[in-house]
Write a structure and sequence with these properties.
Layout lengths: L1 E4 L2 H7 L4 E4 L7 H11 L19 E5 L2 E2 L11 H4 L5 E5 L6
Parallel strand pairs: 1-5
Antiparallel strand pairs: 1-2, 3-4, 3-5
Length: 99
């Protein structure tokens, strides 16, 4: 099981707690995790990544093991700590602002 941590607005939309567990087939990649997440929670389709291109939305970031994985390729294998369930795959809503 893969642990996924969602930002508040997506937790509310999906009706879940801060962290959920989902079954993901090998190989465990960003794409396979997001495919499984969207299959389990269809209301999240289009909120994390574009439905057509499957590219990450601009104000969404991915983290695991204290590393920003947002610019990694969707089919790169996730760290073993995520695959084993020791660490969560975190989806974070980026904050933008200015003066």
């Amino acid at each position: 099981m893969i642990r996924v941590a969602l930002p508040g607005h997506l937790r509310t939309l999906a009706g879940v707690s801060k962290e959920i567990s989902i079954e993901v087939s090998e190989p465990v990649t960003q794409q396979s995790v997001l495919d499984a997440l969207e299959a389990a929670y269809p209301m999240l389709r289009g909120t994390i990544r574009d439905q057509t291109t499957k590219l990450r939305r601009p104000f969404i970031r991915f983290f695991a093991c204290e590393e920003d994985l947002s610019n990694c390729l969707p089919n790169d294998i996730l760290p073993i700590e995520v695959v084993s369930g020791k660490e969560p795959f975190m989806i974070v809503g980026a904050i933008a602002g200015g003066s």
